[in-house]
């Protein structure tokens, strides 16, 4: 829940439509460093969600460039972080999203183990679920897919209802289906 001032600022948005967002970001060829924060700000506008500075002026719950200690040593910066929701890592257009995901995995513990890890190159999005006791699920989609309300809904739920993206399949349920079929071995 946001305070009254933040709610007022949300009502004053000039609404960016999905087609405007898609058209703008299909043309952009800027580097990750030059484009990532503006991309995220535009995404907040598209989804009618507060941006980090509007929602959290202190940056303690939701911020750009969250400093982290990497698992295994060293320091890094998560591009966007929202406590109890997500860690988000950008890469430049057509760059390796698997590398971005591996980078977020190194940050995950210091980001307080967010439920979702998102990687994006401004043209492709991947939402990775990291819920304890469930099978990991990846929801990949492209910039042009944001014309579909269902894809916008996935991104909106990152901000508003991250638990709604929890996979139905649990590791226990999968083990329960597999273990009865495994051949028994006589162990002496």
What do these coordinates show?
The chain is 37% helix and 20% strand. The protein has helices at 4-11, 18-27, 32-47, 52-55, 97-107, 149-160, 171-178; strands at 62-69, 75-82, 86-90, 116-120, 124-129, 138-142. The chain is globular and about 40 Å long. The termini are far apart. The mean pLDDT is 87.
Structure at a glance:
With 188 residues, the chain is α+β, with helices and mostly antiparallel strands. It contains seven helices and six strands; from the N terminus they run H-H-H-H-E-E-E-H-E-E-E-H-H. The chain has one domain (4-164): tt1808, chain A, CATH 3.90.1570.
SSE map:
Elements: H1 4-11, H2 18-27, H3 32-47, H4 52-55, E1 62-69, E2 75-82, E3 86-90, H5 97-107, E4 116-120, E5 124-129, E6 138-142, H6 149-160, H7 171-178
Parallel strand pairs: 3-4
Antiparallel strand pairs: 1-2, 2-3, 4-5, 5-6
List the uncertain runs. none
Amino-to-carboxy terminus distance = 59 Å
Rg from alpha-carbon coordinates: 19 Å
Order of helices and strands: HHHHEEEHEEEHH
Morphology:
globular
Q: Roughly how much helix do the residues carry, as a percent range? A: 25-40%
CATH topology: tt1808, chain A
CATH architecture: Alpha-Beta Complex
Largest sheet: 6 strands, mixed
- Average pLDDT score: 87
Output the CATH class name.
Alpha Beta
With strands numbered from the N-terminus, the spatial order across the biggest sheet is 1-2-3-4-5-6
Number of domains: 1
Backbone structural class: alpha+beta
Q: How many helical stretches?
A: 7
Q: List how many beta strands DSSP finds.
A: 6
Strand fraction equals: 15-25%
